[in-house]
Amino acid sequence: MRILIRDADSKKWKFAETMKAKAESELQKLLVESPSLVTIDEIREGVSSLVYAVSEFGLPGSGSTDVLAFTSQGDIAVIECKLAANPEIKRKVIGQILEYAAYLWKMSYEQVDNRIQQLKGKSLAELIAESIAGEWDEELFRDGVRQTLENGSFILVIVVDEINEELRRIVRYLNECSKSAFSLHALEMNRFQADRTEVLVPYLYGASTKPPTSQQRGQWSEDEFFKVLKEKNQPDIVRTVTDLYKWSIDTADRIWFGTGKETGSFTFHYLKDGKTISIFTIYTNGKLTLNYGWLVKPLQKETLEGFHNAIHEIPTFRQVPSDFANKWPAVKLDAIKNPEYLEKFKGAVLWVRTQIKPQS
User: Fold this and answer.
1) Mean pLDDT of 35-44
2) Which residue has the higher pLDDT, 30 or 276?
3) Of 273, 233, 277, which Cα lies nearest the Cα of 252?
4) 305-335 burial, b for 16+ CB within 10 Å, e for fewer?
5) Does residue 210 contact residue 179 with C-beta atoms inside 8 Å?
6) What's the 3-state SS for the chain?
7) Are 278 and 272 in contact (CB under 8 A)?
8) In terms of Cα–Cα distance, which of 12, 9, 32, 39 is closest to 204?
9) Are 225 and 257 in contact (CB under 8 A)?
10) Does the predicted model carry a pTM greater than 0.90?
11) How confident is the model at residue 197 (pLDDT cuts 50, 70, 90)?
């Protein structure tokens, strides 16, 4: 490939010289700095761009992925970088990237988050928020990551400075002849330079025919939620959830239905200054979670402690720990089927509103 460039105010074109990476770490650095170079809109229809990437993500029982990258919706790309001169660019790199995906599969969100905190000193959600301009639904992101980890629908990308025919053929075969949840791709990164100007030309091999993740993780509806709830729970639990849901419709600023593949959920949200304050979530599997992990940042410490103290006044909630950071304590819905306990729970949630919206 030959590239010519010129300045906007010049009529003369210049040939740009090919720049060969001297080490695989150069490719890795490029992708960590600009994960959107992996044009995943060519990979899966409807998927948003990669917004954050971390290097050397260690996996127990395996090695470390060169790059692990995320979209704002919770899709995950596992990326390995190889130079054409490396003999592993042929068959061995396929085994490597599949091994990393296998060890990442079935990990929990909390395990991934903890490892990233060890590497970067911040939570994954904080790093994603810093990488995005504008509003972002953290809850949708967390749910998306959980579903991707659960079903293994990773985007596997081998990044090279020059692709060979063997790798191209393997990528094509795996995508066109398998029904796996993951997809495999190769990204050739051609770099050129003329004077002080650098040109990067990425070319993706193996555009996928797999369905977009939005089809795999459809959002639940009220009718679907209560249908599954009734199938999986006793009538007294269904009555309790129905009561709480109707009250939430009248009280919350927003009710958000989850995107779980098998387990439905709805979450109670307050909104303040355009920010989501997620209070609790009800699941069709008969559980209720207190979203302390999402409340640490938007609520003042005194408000969070006051909410926790009000919750602790309910006898069936006294086992809930007060360790708020990144915690989502869960209880069975039996804990609020007593009408007195249910009213106390509602009162605790309403108290939070008085603290964040004192004039309402």
Assistant:
1) 82
2) 30
3) 277
4) ebbbebbeebebbeebeeebebbbbebebbb
5) no
6) CCEEECCCCCCCCEEEEEECCCCHHHHHHHHHHCHHHCCHHHCCCCCCCEEEEEEEEECCCCCEEEEEEEECCCCEEEEEEECCCCHHHCCHHHHHHHHHHHHHCCCCHHHHHHHHHHHHCCCHHHHHHHHCCCCCCHHHHHHHHHHHHHHCCCEEEEEECCCCHHHHHHHHHHHHHCCCCCEEEEEEEEEEEECCEEEEEEEEECCCCCCCHHHHCCCCCHHHHHHHHHHHCCHHHHHHHHHHHHHHHHHCCEEEECCCCCCCEEEEEEEECCEEEEEEEEECCCEEEECHHHHCCCCCHHHHHHHHHHHHCCHHHCCCCCCCCCCCCEEEHHHHCCHHHHHHHHHHHHHHHHHHCCCC
7) no
8) 39
9) yes
10) no
11) confident
Q: Kindly report the backbone phi and psi dihedral angles of residue 330, in degrees, each rounded to the nearest multiple of 5, phi listed first.
A: -120, 145
Specify whether the CB–CB gap between 295 and 278 falls below 8 A. Answer: yes
